[in-house]
Amino acid sequence: MSDIRDEAESGEAVSLAPRAPVAVPRVLALANQKGGVGKTTTAINLGTALAAIGETVLIIDLDPQGNASTGLGIERRDRRVSTYDVMCGEATLRQAVLPTAVPRLHIAPSTMDLSGLELELATARDRAYRLRDAVRRLNVDSSHYRNESFDFTYVLIDCPPSLNLITVNAMAAANAILVPLQCEFFALEGLSQLLKTVEQVRQTLNPGLSIHGVVLTMFDARNNLSNQVVEDVRQFMGEKVYETIIPRNVRVSEAPSYGKPVLLYDLKCVGSQAYLRLASEIIQRERNLRAAATV
Length: 295
Fold this sequence. Notes:
Blueprint: H1 2-9, E1 26-30, H2 39-52, E2 57-61, H3 67-71, H4 83-87, H5 93-96, E3 98-99, E4 105-108, H6 117-120, H7 130-136, H8 138-142, E5 154-158, H9 165-173, E6 176-182, H10 187-204, E7 210-219, H11 224-237, E8 241-247, H12 250-254, H13 262-265, H14 270-294
Parallel strand pairs: 1-5, 1-6, 2-4, 2-5, 6-7, 7-8
Antiparallel strand pairs: 3-4
Helix pairs in contact: 2-14, 7-9
């Protein structure tokens, strides 16, 4: 893990010194209703990169498939308390939190039970705010749990590939949305639908919600279509698109089968280096946002 920290701190663009814990975490929801765009891969590896530069990170796995949990080495038999229990009000979020092999990176795992949550909460008046309320209690609960005293500085929510009640909960709980977007045909069509949903949530549930940025994933420089998608998305979204582009990389694809983030599986591969740059870019945007808020 120290190698990752060294690699992260060698970047020229941003000073990545660890900062003191904060009382309220920044909550970023990774959302896109399309499957296979890199949401889970980005959540795992961005969380690892942020932890490597001194942040204390929680990944909330809200996908019933539980790929984020599996990708961080959490066996299904160990998911005794899951995000399903949290959303049903049967457990606090802190009770669901499990450590991972990455220092300062934790996960609240999911199970297949989440797939029936929408029906179970259909008549609940607070059904859209279950996750928001759980996240608000997170650091308070943490300070009184098993004599541990730490605050999460970032919460990353891995959303399912749909715009259902679970994703709406994530958006209602989030400060901002991070959109992984695969460099493929119809990318902009899916993005337009997501932006409409974000606007609806902003108007009805979460006035402070914003788009943090769009990260282009699975980029293949040999493919003319990939280059055209990058150009089109940058023209459509402007500065909201991160400069960092995540390339197609076999090491990124292999890592989850070993229950590891790619940054632990192969730090030197191009995929790992891209996620370190993305973490650096996100930290810089966060600093810019804080600076603008104080003006």
